[in-house]
Fold this sequence. Notes:
The structure holds two protein chains of two kinds.
Chain A (H helix, E strand, L loop, with lengths): L1 E8 L3 E9 L5 E10 L9 H15 L9 E6 L3 E9 L1 E6 L3 E4 L8 E9 L12 E5 L5 H10 L4 E6 L4 H5 L8 E2 L13 E6 L12 H8 L3 H6 L1 H7 L4 E6 L4 E6 L4 E6 L4 E5 L4 H10 L3 E6 L4 H17 L8 E14 L8 E14 L5 H12 L2 E7 H9 L9 E6 L3 E7 L5 E7 L2 H11 L5 H9 L2 E4 L4 E4 L4 E3 L12 E4 L4 E3 L6 H27 L10 E5 L8 H10 L4 E4 L11 H14 L1
Parallel strand pairs in A: 1-4, 4-20, 8-9, 9-10, 10-11, 21-29, 29-30
Antiparallel strand pairs in A: 1-2, 2-3, 5-19, 6-14, 7-13, 8-12, 12-13, 15-16, 15-17, 18-19, 21-22, 22-23, 24-25, 24-27, 25-26, 27-28
Chain B lengths: L6 E7 L3 H13 L3 E6 L6 H11 L4 E6 L2 E6 L9 E3 L3 H13 L5
Parallel strand pairs in B: 1-2, 1-3
Antiparallel strand pairs in B: 3-4, 4-5
Amino acid sequence: MKLIAGVDIGNSTTEVCIGQMDLEGHIQFCSSASVNTTGTKGTVSNVIGIEKALAIALNKIDKNISHLTEIRLNEAAPVIGDTAMETITETIITESTMIGHNPYTPGGEGIGIGITIPLDKICFTNCNEQYIVLIPETVTYEEAARVINQNIDKINGAIVQADEGVLINNRLKKKIPIVDEVQFIEKIPVGMKAVVEVAAQGKTIKQLSNPYGIASIFGLDAEETKYVMHVAKSLIGNRSAVVIRTPKGEVKERVIPAGALFIQDTNRTIVKCNIDEGAQSIMEKINALGIIEDINGEPGTNVGGMLNKMKDGLAELTDRKMEDIKIQDLLAVDTMVPLDVKGALAGEVSMEKAVAIAAMVKADKLPMEKVAQTLEEKTGIKVMVAGVEAVMASLGALTTPGTKLPIAVLDLGGGSTDAALLDENGTVRSVHLAGAGQFITMLIDSELGLNNLSLAEEVKKNPVAKVESLFHIRMETGEVIFYEKPLAPKLFGKVVVITEKEMIPIDKKISMEKIVHVRQKVKRKVFVQNAIRALGKIAPLENIRNIPNVVLVGGSALDFEIPELIMEELSNFNVLAGRGNIRRTEGPRNAVATGLIMSFAEGQI
Amino acid sequence: MNQSKPEIVIMACQTSKEILKEILAGIEEEQLFYKVIWMERQMDVQQLATEAAKQSSLDVGIGVFQRNVVVTCRQLEGKQPLLKGDNGYRRLGINAARYIKKNPFV
């Protein structure tokens, strides 16, 4: 009786499988476990994680490490992924010419035009002019209303620092539009022509979000109207807004010189690709090339800096020189990122264009022998580095009921998307592509403007719901769940992420629909695109239709919607695809570790 | 429903006009209606809020006793109230209204 352990070290998790072989060579699987990988994949620090996982798995069958005959490590695919993002546009307000935000409760409604003036100066003005008053938070709403009422004939609108728009409005003899919650009211230029617009409840502004609307009010010519386009654009969808015209002020969208990528293939052909052309064009060029040797960014540009930073980080991780780091695949995705507008007065944000990049670096060979040696020294058990990861994964995947050769395995990991095709003759073709689970987390984080990667990770993995009362929530599917005990008031009215343990509130004004939309869009952009790219590369005659069945494995195959999104797409090619169920029990996990034990049995016969 | 007008009921006891005014300003800014009932008999602030919630057609009541404020709703009778505090009165008023509008608290 021999007790064997298969160990698979991945970018994010280390998985083990324990098998028992009787004297006739029959294998019986006994136990398995999964822990987080300690340190970078393929380095000696992995040993701590391996020992922990072995102990957990062996404990389940009342054994310990000394009972093992052999530990088999995978020849891990030497692939490390990294991600980065750079915005390529930026909105800047010079001399503060616009305020566009959505205070919860602005006051009044309509459009008011006039010259900006602090409230305490209004009584010194003459009657022929029309004004917009600026009310700092030191003035109470009652005082503000009293002064406005005294001068009502020459006041057409108000800009208020405190959240008192409705309070002031309710005390006025004549209704004027009032924008409130303007944080930096002291920065508003005085003595300039301004327009205040507040839409009726449930509506959005019309005049100031239209460039011709702004042109009509300020009497702009065609050339000047061109410049207010960005003002109008950034005000779309707001319930209230202010536009002020100063002689030099403007809002511009600055395009940051993003630079170009130089993609070099193994035939030494170099293709130049401008980032401005967008992700689609970059991907077309990358996919058209054969095997990629290296990818570099134009020096002195954003993308150049971005790729250098990535290579630098990877060099440090793998303890090599930066020149030796070659990027062998790259996944570019266009995204929109909400960024604070520079020079804004009320915390306005603007959606900026950005390009996100995931890169994959192949090492020559990970120092697995070193890991094996250390593990052997520490445990006293024979440790073998056995088998190529792709072969092991295919062997393991074949234990999924309903599969047959030739079989394709799509490993949806944390750092990379790997695919392998094993045919009847035992030949294996495999490919590693950049972009996987961690890339999705980064994209969700930036596109929703969360600035919190661990929250983004939860958003990726779990459905969201809206807390509609203290006793019930509505899930994104529309279902309603009731609770006997009241929920915490801090969750009330918010969109929450439903994890297994708790509800995490998202403290931003983002609707549930937006979150679901972004989450699924990002998953499609990364995994569906990568599935097609990967299968296209390994398929016989490079035609996906020639692959009979595809088994999805890896951590991201556990996701509650990624497998469905991929299946949906692959069904268009008439390919049978589904989430793996390794050994009928493990789901899409443990394929490589299982394969390692199966390969041990074959070696013994 | 003993009333038809959709209003938050505030039951106040031994408190100042200034505190009350701030709470009411918060409710008004959120564009909701309210009704104030002055209580002569001394009552616990929690009791005041519970009683106020019972009288509110919106099921939301605010109890004010001296400097203490409790916001609760009828469904929470006998349980922890929605909010309580002895400062930031404007915000307590705003959040009481936001509860009815099903908007998250500020």
